[in-house]
Structures are given as structure tokens and as C-alpha cells.
Specification:
The complex is a heterodimer of chains A (114) and B (113). With 114 residues, chain A is mainly β. Chain A contains no helices and eleven strands. In chain A, strands 2, 4, 5, 9, 10 and 11 form a six-stranded mixed sheet that branches. A five-stranded antiparallel sheet of chain A has the order 1-3-8-7-6, with no helix packed on it. The mean pLDDT of chain A is 92. Helices cover 0% and strands 53% of the residues of chain B. The model of chain B has no long low-confidence stretch (mean pLDDT 93). At the A-B interface, strand 5, strand 9 and strand 10 of A face strand 4, strand 5, strand 9 and strand 10 of B.
């Protein structure tokens, strides 16, 4: 069965600092991988996704992630944090190829201080 | 394009009651998935419907059920509510694009007293 592990339930950075949110996955088939962001009292918004092809994926709001098969990782980064980036971030893997169901990690709350 | 809409946004019920939540997908999307989000368990997949048929199901008891109508709108029902059913219920829809990206609604916050 596929699974996702997000290392660190809480990450704190200063404004302008590098953001690194870690995600490792387990999958017996080539995975589709996603990062979502959730702001308080809202649904999930897709930041970026890896399906096939280029392993460095660029998303919205300056975020990017690199798929590393050898490390089974899909870490999310942003060179310079903004206050508006404070939110909860979820890494997800698509469960099987026949449907769209996602398996989510437990989430990482990002705090940004001025 | 209008996004995924969910009604109601907030709901308060008591133990033993049943509840029905509604989801209207993005126009043209035929796949609707439901997820439960709680502080303890995180985001968990409930079920997925495609063209009125359940395509996938998560590991939830039979008290949780769903259906999809011919216009792709979906409902989920929870019978005999328990305190532990208090959660944010999220609906997501997908189109026929290559990788079936899911678009999420704002959720329905269910509180069971």
C-alpha cells in the first residue's frame, strides 16, 4: 500500500529564509505526487504535482519540489518565505492508477516570523 | 469556472442522528471524492464516485455512504452519528485531464454533540 510521511509537524522560519518541507513516500508503482496548501477554514489548494517527466517541478507562489526516486522523496522548497506562506502543507500520493483517491501525509504547519 | 461547492458549510448534530452533506463539482467534472479531516487522523479518503458508480472506497464503517447523481453532484450520508465523526468533510472533483488533478471545496464542518 502507498503511504506518505511528512517529517516535522511544525516548521518555523523567518521571513526571507529558505522554506524546506520534507516528504517521503512509499509506493510499489511509479507514483503521482502532490503538494497541497490549506489556509485556516478553507479547503486544499494544489501547489504543484509530479506525474512523469522532469523531476524538478515548479508550482504556484514560488514553490518547487524535486522528485528523487532513489530517496523516495518529494521535498517542497521556496527560496524566500513570505508571511503569507504561513499555512498547513500536505504531501499526497495517488493511491492507484484507476482512480483519483489521494493518500495524504499528516501535514506540516509552517510558521513565518518577521 | 465556478469551483467546487459544498453545503452546508457548518452543521451541528447530536449523537445517533444522521446527516447528509452535498457537493457540487466543477462543471464538466465527473469524478467526486470525499475525505474526512480530523486533528488526530489527518486527511483520510472516504470514497470516490465516477459517473454515478463508486470507484474506490476507503476504510470507513458502513455508516458512511455516498452517491452520485447524473449531473455529477454527490452526497454523502453518515448514519447513527458518533462523537468521533466530528470533522471537516472535504469534497474534491476531477476532470478527464491526463492526471486527474483534484480540486477541493471549502468543506463542511460537522460537529457532533
Amino acid at each position: 500500500a502507498q503511504s506518505v510521511t511528512q517529517l516535522g509537524s511544525h516548521v518555523s522560519v523567518s521571513e526571507g529564509a529558505l522554506v524546506l518541507l520534507r516528504c517521503n513516500y512509499s509506493s510499489s508503482v511509479p507514483p503521482y505526487l502532490f503538494w497541497y496548501v490549506q489556509y485556516p477554514n478553507q479547503g486544499l489548494q494544489l501547489l504543484l504535482k509530479y506525474t512523469t517527466g522532469a523531476t524538478l517541478v515548479k508550482g504556484i507562489n514560488g514553490f518547487e519540489a524535486e522528485f528523487k526516486k532513489s530517496e523516495t522523496s518529494f521535498h517542497l522548497t521556496k527560496p524566500s518565505a513570505h508571511m503569507s506562506d504561513a499555512a498547513e502543507y500536505f504531501c499526497a500520493v495517488r493511491e492507484n492508477q484507476a482512480g483519483t483517491a489521494l493518500i495524504f501525509g499528516k501535514g506540516t504547519t509552517l510558521s513565518v516570523s518577521s | 469556472k465556478a469551483g467546487v461547492t459544498q453545503t452546508p458549510r457548518y452543521l451541528i448534530k447530536t449523537r445517533g442522528q444522521q446527516v447528509t452533506l452535498s457537493c457540487s463539482p466543477i462543471s464538466g467534472h465527473r469524478s467526486v471524492s470525499w475525505y474526512q479531516q480530523t486533528p488526530g487522523q489527518g486527511l483520510q479518503f472516504l470514497f470516490e464516485y465516477f459517473s454515478e458508480t463508486q470507484r474506490n472506497k476507503g476504510n470507513f464503517p458502513g455508516r458512511f455512504s455516498g452517491r452520485q447523481f447524473s449531473n455529477s453532484r454527490s452526497e454523502m450520508n453518515v448514519s447513527t452519528l458518533e462523537l468521533g465523526d466530528s470533522a471537516l468533510y472535504l469534497c474534491a472533483s476531477s476532470g478527464l485531464s491526463s492526471y486527474n488533478e483534484q480540486f477541493f471545496g471549502p468543506g463542511t464542518r460537522l460537529t457532533v454533540l
